[in-house]
Structure formats: structure tokens, C-alpha cells
Specification:
Layout: H1 9-16, E1 17-27, H2 33-44, E2 47-52, E3 58-65, H3 66-76, E4 84-93, E5 102-104
């Protein structure tokens, strides 16, 4: 007989789902970085938002299936063709399942 293992919902979500905040620096504004990020996020089925910061960086808040979130983060290391990414900072956050879509914020 198979042994049942009790798993708290928060443990399940932390293994299967991920939430990260990403800061991207370089030539990332005025090069369709936000629009391209939204398009890629929608293709991957992840949720959250992207916005320009006043210091010239782009900020991405993304959550969803762990592998899909990681794929978007990896994509953001280069971004769209005309962008130039000089640096990336990634901050892990607790998964919340808060978003219904992926949008550009202003």
C-alpha cells in the first residue's frame, strides 16, 4: 500500500510555483523592453507586470510555474534585439498567486 505524505499547501506552492522581482539595467528603456516582456510572459503563461523606473532600469514582477518564471528571467538577461542588458538583479519573494494577467504598468 502506498504511503501518504502530508504536504502543507504552502510547501506545494513553493516547490511548483515561484515569484520573483527582477531589476534590469542597461539600454532597456525606449527599446520595446516592456512590450516584449509582456509578449514573452503571455507566451509562457506567467502573470505579473513590468514597468520603467525613474533611474533608467526596468522592473519585472512575475509569478507562475517555476520553470516558466525561470524561462522569462533567462530571456530578460538579453531582452529584445535592440536592448542592451548590463545588469540584472533577482529577488525571490513568497508566491502569492495574486495576478490574473501580465501587464505593463506606468
Amino acid at each position: 500500500m502506498a504511503q501518504k505524505i502530508k504536504v502543507r499547501p504552502s510547501e506545494f506552492f513553493s516547490e511548483k510555483f515561484r515569484r520573483v522581482r527582477v531589476y534590469i539595467s542597461g539600454l532597456v528603456q525606449g527599446v520595446f523592453f516592456r512590450d516584449s516582456t509582456r509578449e514573452k510572459a503571455q507566451q509562457l503563461g506567467v502573470k505579473g507586470w513590468v514597468k520603467n523606473l525613474t533611474d533608467g532600469r526596468v522592473e519585472i514582477m512575475v509569478e507562475g510555474e517555476k520553470e516558466k518564471v525561470e524561462e522569462l528571467v533567462e530571456w530578460s538577461r538579453k531582452g529584445p534585439l535592440i536592448a542592451r542588458v548590463d545588469g540584472i538583479e533577482i529577488k525571490e519573494e513568497e508566491y502569492k498567486g495574486k495576478f490574473d494577467s501580465f501587464e505593463i504598468r506606468y
